[in-house]
Predict the structure.
Amino acid sequence: MRFVIERDALSDGVAWVSRSVSSRPIMPVLLGVVIEAKKDQKNSIHLAGYDLETSAKAEVNADVKEEGKVLVPGRLLSDITKSLPNKPVTISLDGNRVSIVSGSAKFALPTLPVNDYPNLPELPGETGRISGELFAEAVHQVAIAAGKDDSLPVLTGVFVEIEENKLTLAATDRYRLAVRELTWEAPRASASALIRARTLHDASKSLTGNAHVSLALAAATAQERLIGFFTEGKSMTSRMLDGTFPPYRHLLPNDRNATAIVEVAPLLDSVRRVAIVADKTIPLRLTFAPGSLTLEAGAGEEASATEELEIAFDGEGFTIAFNPTYLVDGLSALGTAYVDMAFTGASKPAVLSGRESADGQSDLSYRYLLMPMRYAS
Protein backbone atom coordinates (compact mmCIF):
# COMPACT_ATOMS: atom_id res chain seq x y z
CA MET A 1 0.00 0.00 0.00
CA ARG A 2 1.23 3.47 -0.90
CA PHE A 3 -0.55 6.77 -1.53
CA VAL A 4 -0.05 10.54 -1.41
CA ILE A 5 -2.71 12.78 0.18
CA GLU A 6 -3.21 16.38 1.25
CA ARG A 7 -2.58 16.96 4.96
CA ASP A 8 -5.90 18.72 5.73
CA ALA A 9 -8.00 16.10 3.94
CA LEU A 10 -6.24 13.29 5.79
CA SER A 11 -6.51 15.02 9.17
CA ASP A 12 -10.22 15.73 8.67
CA GLY A 13 -10.99 12.13 7.69
CA VAL A 14 -8.97 10.65 10.54
CA ALA A 15 -10.57 13.02 13.08
CA TRP A 16 -14.02 11.90 11.91
CA VAL A 17 -13.44 8.16 12.24
CA SER A 18 -11.27 8.32 15.38
CA ARG A 19 -14.34 9.42 17.37
CA SER A 20 -15.56 5.85 17.00
CA VAL A 21 -12.32 4.28 18.23
CA SER A 22 -12.81 2.55 21.56
CA SER A 23 -10.85 3.85 24.56
CA ARG A 24 -11.54 0.67 26.55
CA PRO A 25 -11.83 -2.05 23.93
CA ILE A 26 -12.92 -5.60 24.58
CA MET A 27 -10.69 -6.55 21.64
CA PRO A 28 -7.28 -4.93 20.95
CA VAL A 29 -8.14 -4.41 17.26
CA LEU A 30 -10.85 -1.93 18.28
CA LEU A 31 -8.03 0.47 19.18
CA GLY A 32 -7.34 0.79 15.47
CA VAL A 33 -8.39 2.76 12.42
CA VAL A 34 -8.64 0.92 9.11
CA ILE A 35 -6.90 2.52 6.12
CA GLU A 36 -7.76 1.03 2.75
CA ALA A 37 -6.32 2.40 -0.50
CA LYS A 38 -8.21 1.61 -3.70
CA LYS A 39 -6.96 2.29 -7.17
CA ASP A 40 -10.36 2.74 -8.80
CA GLN A 41 -12.10 5.54 -10.71
CA LYS A 42 -12.32 7.65 -7.54
CA ASN A 43 -8.67 6.98 -6.65
CA SER A 44 -9.43 7.36 -2.94
CA ILE A 45 -8.67 5.95 0.46
CA HIS A 46 -11.28 4.67 2.88
CA LEU A 47 -10.97 5.16 6.66
CA ALA A 48 -13.05 3.38 9.30
CA GLY A 49 -13.39 3.20 13.07
CA TYR A 50 -15.73 1.07 15.21
CA ASP A 51 -16.27 0.46 18.95
CA LEU A 52 -19.18 -2.01 18.50
CA GLU A 53 -21.64 0.77 19.39
CA THR A 54 -20.73 3.54 16.96
CA SER A 55 -19.08 3.21 13.55
CA ALA A 56 -17.67 5.90 11.28
CA LYS A 57 -16.39 5.87 7.71
CA ALA A 58 -14.68 8.50 5.59
CA GLU A 59 -13.70 8.51 1.93
CA VAL A 60 -10.88 10.88 1.01
CA ASN A 61 -9.36 11.67 -2.39
CA ALA A 62 -5.75 10.57 -2.73
CA ASP A 63 -3.16 9.66 -5.35
CA VAL A 64 -3.06 5.90 -4.87
CA LYS A 65 0.19 4.32 -6.05
CA GLU A 66 -0.39 0.85 -4.65
CA GLU A 67 -3.56 -0.69 -3.21
CA GLY A 68 -3.67 -2.16 0.25
CA LYS A 69 -5.41 -2.33 3.61
CA VAL A 70 -3.94 -1.88 7.08
CA LEU A 71 -5.04 -1.34 10.67
CA VAL A 72 -3.07 1.16 12.78
CA PRO A 73 -3.53 2.60 16.31
CA GLY A 74 -6.29 5.18 15.93
CA ARG A 75 -5.52 7.72 18.68
CA LEU A 76 -1.86 7.83 17.69
CA LEU A 77 -2.76 8.28 14.02
CA SER A 78 -5.11 11.14 14.94
CA ASP A 79 -2.45 12.90 17.03
CA ILE A 80 0.13 12.53 14.26
CA THR A 81 -2.06 13.77 11.42
CA LYS A 82 -3.07 16.87 13.42
CA SER A 83 0.59 17.76 13.99
CA LEU A 84 1.95 17.24 10.46
CA PRO A 85 3.31 20.23 8.51
CA ASN A 86 1.05 21.62 5.79
CA LYS A 87 2.61 19.56 3.01
CA PRO A 88 1.54 16.49 1.02
CA VAL A 89 1.63 13.30 3.08
CA THR A 90 2.99 9.99 1.79
CA ILE A 91 1.76 6.88 3.57
CA SER A 92 3.12 3.44 2.74
CA LEU A 93 3.30 -0.04 4.18
CA ASP A 94 6.78 -1.42 4.78
CA GLY A 95 6.59 -4.92 6.20
CA ASN A 96 4.56 -4.69 9.41
CA ARG A 97 5.11 -0.94 9.84
CA VAL A 98 3.27 2.00 8.27
CA SER A 99 5.43 4.93 7.22
CA ILE A 100 4.02 8.49 7.34
CA VAL A 101 6.15 11.20 5.70
CA SER A 102 5.32 14.90 5.36
CA GLY A 103 8.18 17.25 4.50
CA SER A 104 11.01 16.39 6.87
CA ALA A 105 8.65 14.82 9.43
CA LYS A 106 8.71 11.03 9.44
CA PHE A 107 6.73 8.57 11.56
CA ALA A 108 6.55 4.78 11.67
CA LEU A 109 3.49 3.09 13.18
CA PRO A 110 3.00 -0.56 14.13
CA THR A 111 0.12 -2.43 12.50
CA LEU A 112 -2.65 -4.42 14.12
CA PRO A 113 -4.14 -7.64 12.64
CA VAL A 114 -6.59 -6.18 10.10
CA ASN A 115 -8.17 -9.60 9.39
CA ASP A 116 -9.44 -9.69 12.99
CA TYR A 117 -11.29 -6.38 12.62
CA PRO A 118 -15.09 -6.81 12.81
CA ASN A 119 -17.38 -5.93 9.90
CA LEU A 120 -19.03 -2.54 10.24
CA PRO A 121 -22.85 -2.39 10.27
CA GLU A 122 -24.67 -1.38 7.11
CA LEU A 123 -26.10 2.12 6.99
CA PRO A 124 -29.94 2.11 7.00
CA GLY A 125 -31.77 3.67 4.06
CA GLU A 126 -32.23 7.45 4.04
CA THR A 127 -35.16 8.76 6.08
CA GLY A 128 -34.71 12.46 5.28
CA ARG A 129 -32.23 15.29 4.93
CA ILE A 130 -31.53 18.64 6.52
CA SER A 131 -29.02 21.50 6.36
CA GLY A 132 -25.81 20.66 8.19
CA GLU A 133 -25.74 24.04 9.98
CA LEU A 134 -29.38 23.77 11.05
CA PHE A 135 -28.91 20.21 12.26
CA ALA A 136 -25.86 21.15 14.36
CA GLU A 137 -27.70 24.13 15.87
CA ALA A 138 -30.75 22.04 16.78
CA VAL A 139 -28.67 19.26 18.33
CA HIS A 140 -26.68 21.73 20.44
CA GLN A 141 -29.85 23.41 21.69
CA VAL A 142 -31.28 20.08 22.85
CA ALA A 143 -28.22 18.08 23.94
CA ILE A 144 -27.44 20.54 26.76
CA ALA A 145 -30.48 19.20 28.64
CA ALA A 146 -29.49 15.53 28.39
CA GLY A 147 -28.48 13.74 31.58
CA LYS A 148 -24.89 12.77 32.43
CA ASP A 149 -25.74 9.88 34.76
CA ASP A 150 -25.05 6.61 32.92
CA SER A 151 -27.08 4.72 35.52
CA LEU A 152 -30.14 6.31 33.84
CA PRO A 153 -29.22 5.66 30.18
CA VAL A 154 -32.60 6.76 28.78
CA LEU A 155 -32.00 10.27 30.10
CA THR A 156 -28.52 10.47 28.52
CA GLY A 157 -30.11 10.37 25.08
CA VAL A 158 -31.76 12.70 22.61
CA PHE A 159 -35.16 11.58 21.43
CA VAL A 160 -35.54 11.93 17.67
CA GLU A 161 -39.10 11.87 16.37
CA ILE A 162 -40.14 12.07 12.71
CA GLU A 163 -43.66 12.81 11.55
CA GLU A 164 -43.57 13.24 7.77
CA ASN A 165 -41.73 16.54 7.13
CA LYS A 166 -41.51 17.49 10.83
CA LEU A 167 -38.43 16.57 12.85
CA THR A 168 -38.48 16.93 16.65
CA LEU A 169 -35.52 16.60 19.01
CA ALA A 170 -35.99 16.42 22.78
CA ALA A 171 -33.82 15.76 25.84
CA THR A 172 -34.27 15.97 29.61
CA ASP A 173 -32.32 15.27 32.79
CA ARG A 174 -35.49 15.62 34.95
CA TYR A 175 -34.56 19.18 35.99
CA ARG A 176 -34.95 20.73 32.54
CA LEU A 177 -36.35 19.85 29.15
CA ALA A 178 -35.25 21.12 25.74
CA VAL A 179 -37.40 20.63 22.64
CA ARG A 180 -36.58 21.73 19.09
CA GLU A 181 -39.03 21.33 16.21
CA LEU A 182 -38.09 21.92 12.57
CA THR A 183 -39.10 21.00 9.07
CA TRP A 184 -36.91 18.93 6.79
CA GLU A 185 -36.87 17.17 3.45
CA ALA A 186 -38.41 13.77 4.01
CA PRO A 187 -40.73 11.32 2.33
CA ARG A 188 -44.00 10.64 4.09
CA ALA A 189 -42.77 8.62 7.03
CA SER A 190 -43.02 8.32 10.79
CA ALA A 191 -40.22 7.02 12.98
CA SER A 192 -38.49 7.61 16.31
CA ALA A 193 -35.14 6.86 17.90
CA LEU A 194 -33.26 7.44 21.12
CA ILE A 195 -29.57 8.14 20.61
CA ARG A 196 -26.77 9.06 23.00
CA ALA A 197 -26.49 12.82 23.26
CA ARG A 198 -22.68 12.70 23.15
CA THR A 199 -22.71 10.70 19.92
CA LEU A 200 -25.26 12.96 18.28
CA HIS A 201 -23.46 16.13 19.37
CA ASP A 202 -20.06 14.94 18.12
CA ALA A 203 -21.54 13.92 14.77
CA SER A 204 -23.40 17.19 14.27
CA LYS A 205 -20.35 19.35 15.06
CA SER A 206 -18.35 17.59 12.37
CA LEU A 207 -21.09 17.96 9.76
CA THR A 208 -21.63 21.73 10.05
CA GLY A 209 -19.74 22.53 6.87
CA ASN A 210 -22.00 20.38 4.71
CA ALA A 211 -24.96 21.75 2.79
CA HIS A 212 -27.07 18.70 3.62
CA VAL A 213 -26.95 15.89 6.14
CA SER A 214 -29.02 12.76 5.61
CA LEU A 215 -30.47 10.87 8.56
CA ALA A 216 -31.17 7.17 8.35
CA LEU A 217 -33.30 5.30 10.87
CA ALA A 218 -33.64 1.54 10.84
CA ALA A 219 -37.18 0.23 10.79
CA ALA A 220 -38.68 -0.83 14.12
CA THR A 221 -38.66 -4.42 12.86
CA ALA A 222 -34.95 -4.34 11.87
CA GLN A 223 -32.62 -6.80 13.57
CA GLU A 224 -30.19 -4.02 14.45
CA ARG A 225 -31.72 -0.80 15.80
CA LEU A 226 -29.41 1.74 14.19
CA ILE A 227 -29.49 5.43 13.42
CA GLY A 228 -27.13 6.79 10.80
CA PHE A 229 -25.88 10.10 9.43
CA PHE A 230 -24.21 10.58 6.11
CA THR A 231 -23.04 13.33 3.83
CA GLU A 232 -20.54 13.55 1.03
CA GLY A 233 -17.56 11.42 1.98
CA LYS A 234 -18.60 10.73 5.59
CA SER A 235 -21.01 8.40 7.36
CA MET A 236 -21.72 7.23 10.90
CA THR A 237 -23.97 4.67 12.52
CA SER A 238 -24.88 4.26 16.19
CA ARG A 239 -26.97 1.75 18.07
CA MET A 240 -30.11 3.23 19.54
CA LEU A 241 -30.49 3.30 23.30
CA ASP A 242 -32.86 0.77 24.83
CA GLY A 243 -35.83 2.04 26.79
CA THR A 244 -38.66 4.48 26.30
CA PHE A 245 -38.16 8.23 26.43
CA PRO A 246 -40.55 9.75 28.98
CA PRO A 247 -43.67 11.51 27.67
CA TYR A 248 -42.86 15.20 27.64
CA ARG A 249 -45.35 17.17 25.58
CA HIS A 250 -47.80 17.57 28.47
CA LEU A 251 -45.05 19.32 30.46
CA LEU A 252 -45.06 22.29 28.06
CA PRO A 253 -47.96 24.49 29.25
CA ASN A 254 -50.26 26.15 26.73
CA ASP A 255 -51.18 29.01 29.05
CA ARG A 256 -49.24 31.48 31.19
CA ASN A 257 -49.95 33.72 34.19
CA ALA A 258 -46.94 36.01 33.77
CA THR A 259 -44.51 36.97 31.01
CA ALA A 260 -41.08 38.59 31.15
CA ILE A 261 -39.32 39.87 28.01
CA VAL A 262 -35.62 40.37 28.72
CA GLU A 263 -32.59 41.18 26.57
CA VAL A 264 -30.42 38.07 26.62
CA ALA A 265 -26.89 39.54 26.68
CA PRO A 266 -27.25 41.73 29.80
CA LEU A 267 -29.27 39.02 31.53
CA LEU A 268 -26.53 36.47 30.91
CA ASP A 269 -23.90 38.88 32.22
CA SER A 270 -25.95 39.51 35.38
CA VAL A 271 -26.65 35.83 36.00
CA ARG A 272 -22.96 34.97 35.70
CA ARG A 273 -21.91 37.79 38.04
CA VAL A 274 -24.46 37.08 40.74
CA ALA A 275 -23.89 33.32 40.48
CA ILE A 276 -20.24 33.76 41.49
CA VAL A 277 -21.37 33.41 45.12
CA ALA A 278 -23.64 30.44 44.30
CA ASP A 279 -22.93 26.78 43.72
CA LYS A 280 -24.98 23.69 42.88
CA THR A 281 -26.71 23.81 46.25
CA ILE A 282 -27.33 27.57 46.30
CA PRO A 283 -30.08 28.70 43.90
CA LEU A 284 -30.21 31.98 42.05
CA ARG A 285 -33.32 33.93 43.10
CA LEU A 286 -35.15 36.04 40.54
CA THR A 287 -37.76 38.55 41.68
CA PHE A 288 -40.02 39.81 38.90
CA ALA A 289 -42.01 43.03 39.17
CA PRO A 290 -43.45 45.47 36.62
CA GLY A 291 -40.43 46.99 34.84
CA SER A 292 -37.71 45.25 36.87
CA LEU A 293 -35.94 41.97 37.59
CA THR A 294 -33.82 41.55 40.72
CA LEU A 295 -31.25 38.74 40.84
CA GLU A 296 -29.95 37.54 44.21
CA ALA A 297 -27.75 34.75 45.52
CA GLY A 298 -26.45 33.98 49.00
CA ALA A 299 -27.76 35.27 52.31
CA GLY A 300 -26.98 35.63 55.99
CA GLU A 301 -23.31 35.39 56.91
CA GLU A 302 -22.39 33.71 53.62
CA ALA A 303 -21.21 35.64 50.56
CA SER A 304 -24.07 37.30 48.72
CA ALA A 305 -24.74 39.29 45.56
CA THR A 306 -27.62 41.23 44.02
CA GLU A 307 -28.25 43.03 40.75
CA GLU A 308 -31.25 44.68 39.07
CA LEU A 309 -32.28 44.86 35.40
CA GLU A 310 -34.95 46.78 33.53
CA ILE A 311 -37.37 44.41 31.78
CA ALA A 312 -40.83 44.25 30.28
CA PHE A 313 -43.08 42.28 32.62
CA ASP A 314 -46.77 41.42 32.49
CA GLY A 315 -48.41 39.77 35.48
CA GLU A 316 -48.31 39.80 39.28
CA GLY A 317 -44.84 40.03 40.81
CA PHE A 318 -43.26 36.94 42.36
CA THR A 319 -39.91 35.32 43.23
CA ILE A 320 -38.63 32.11 41.69
CA ALA A 321 -35.26 30.34 42.01
CA PHE A 322 -33.20 28.41 39.44
CA ASN A 323 -29.96 26.50 39.15
CA PRO A 324 -27.78 29.27 37.62
CA THR A 325 -25.85 26.88 35.37
CA TYR A 326 -29.04 25.50 33.87
CA LEU A 327 -30.39 29.02 33.36
CA VAL A 328 -27.19 30.08 31.56
CA ASP A 329 -27.36 26.96 29.36
CA GLY A 330 -30.90 27.77 28.27
CA LEU A 331 -30.29 31.46 27.62
CA SER A 332 -27.12 30.71 25.64
CA ALA A 333 -28.89 28.13 23.48
CA LEU A 334 -31.64 30.50 22.31
CA GLY A 335 -29.53 32.31 19.72
CA THR A 336 -31.81 35.37 19.81
CA ALA A 337 -31.50 38.92 21.16
CA TYR A 338 -34.41 38.57 23.60
CA VAL A 339 -35.89 35.81 25.74
CA ASP A 340 -39.57 35.27 26.39
CA MET A 341 -39.92 33.80 29.89
CA ALA A 342 -43.37 32.30 30.45
CA PHE A 343 -44.56 31.45 33.98
CA THR A 344 -47.59 29.68 35.41
CA GLY A 345 -46.51 30.07 39.03
CA ALA A 346 -43.54 30.57 41.36
CA SER A 347 -43.35 26.84 42.12
CA LYS A 348 -43.91 25.64 38.57
CA PRO A 349 -41.50 25.32 35.62
CA ALA A 350 -40.68 28.34 33.47
CA VAL A 351 -40.52 28.03 29.67
CA LEU A 352 -37.92 30.01 27.74
CA SER A 353 -38.25 30.80 24.03
CA GLY A 354 -36.50 33.29 21.79
CA ARG A 355 -37.46 36.64 20.27
CA GLU A 356 -35.51 38.66 17.73
CA SER A 357 -36.91 41.93 19.13
CA ALA A 358 -38.68 43.01 22.32
CA ASP A 359 -41.99 43.53 20.51
CA GLY A 360 -41.60 40.64 18.04
CA GLN A 361 -43.20 37.21 17.99
CA SER A 362 -41.77 34.43 20.13
CA ASP A 363 -40.15 31.56 18.23
CA LEU A 364 -41.74 28.46 19.71
CA SER A 365 -39.75 26.09 17.51
CA TYR A 366 -37.30 25.91 20.44
CA ARG A 367 -38.49 25.75 24.03
CA TYR A 368 -36.42 25.26 27.15
CA LEU A 369 -38.35 24.25 30.26
CA LEU A 370 -36.59 24.84 33.58
CA MET A 371 -37.68 23.47 36.95
CA PRO A 372 -37.52 25.89 39.90
CA MET A 373 -35.41 25.20 43.00
CA ARG A 374 -36.44 25.56 46.61
CA TYR A 375 -34.84 28.39 48.53
CA ALA A 376 -34.83 29.78 52.06
CA SER A 377 -37.00 32.87 52.27
About this structure: Residues 7-18 form the longest helix (12 residues).
